[in-house]
Automatic annotation (TrEMBL):
Keywords on record: Hydrolase
Identification of the protein by name: Dienelactone hydrolase-related enzyme
Keyword Transcription regulation belongs to the record: no
SUPFAM superfamilies: alpha/beta-Hydrolases
One term of GO molecular function: hydrolase activity
NCBIfam families: hydrolase_RcgR (NF047337)
The keyword Acyltransferase belongs to this UniProt entry's keyword annotation: no
Amino acid sequence: MYHSWLDRWDERRARRGDKGKKTTDLVLDAERAFPGAKKVTDIEEFCVLADHAGADPTFYDNPGGTDQGFDRQGEWLKFRSDISTDVDENNVVWATITDSGSLDQALVIFHHWNARARNRMIANFFSRRGITVVEIAMPYHFERSRPRSSHADYMLSPNLGRTIQSVRQAVLDGRKLIRWLRRAGYRDISVLGMSLGSWVAGLIAAHDPAVSKASLFLTAGSLADMVWTGRATRAIHDSLEPEIDLTHLRTAWGPLNLENYALNLARPGLDLHVVLAKRDRVVLPELSQTFMRGLKDAGAQPNILELDCGHYSLAMLPFILLAGLSLKRFMSRPDKLERRA
């Protein structure tokens, strides 16, 4: 009875999230996704470029922009993104800093898709425990929103190239912020990502050795499969299905697939923490389990918490409390390299 009610609650929440989402046309826009690429006209050409990007170890590296120009005023930090888009507001990155008064640890949080506000409760909770929390705005969210847009439709959409550009921009913005934190003197830097934010946090952890801990909430490996099967992305699926199949989408979004970076995520200096929802209809549990098996096969030992709730009902008691306590224990552990010393 309780779980039936919980499932209905999640579905009502999903329906509210459907407002403003529309089916549109498939767009390739390879020139947005891949630096130096020219316009392509068919999905096969796009997939070739995607394969090259996925094999390029520098795809998520600093493209050569400056690390200067950070402006901190009180709790607010802003700086220019190293990727320039056609939405001016999106080209300036904003973050809030909840200072702990200590330089021992910093936690960078990447929110979920279409988030409306930062999570002050999490920030205050960890800052009181000696961990400075930095909540960054991902592309097209919060202060970076596209004018007159009802949701962050440019972050994740049937525009294959813009979606890759947006996720890559989020990763580069996060890595630029982490470099600033290192220069500010923070010793241990961790990342926390929620839902779509977990893909960003995972990609950063896979490519940035400065990150010692990564916590991924409501995550999986294949973003293509998540979009194709997930409750929150039906409009995107319905836009894509008449034009391409899932096999092509997997290849096209291969550079965004965390399963392709499992060996990176199993590196010796990284600890992994994962929170999953057994009743999730946005990120299906079978997708999450495939990712967990891939991580373990690569040699990673993720600390996994599975809760009997849905994607949205994770925010309800007792689930959010259990997830929070698990994250607190994870953040309190010595780093993997320290434990081996």
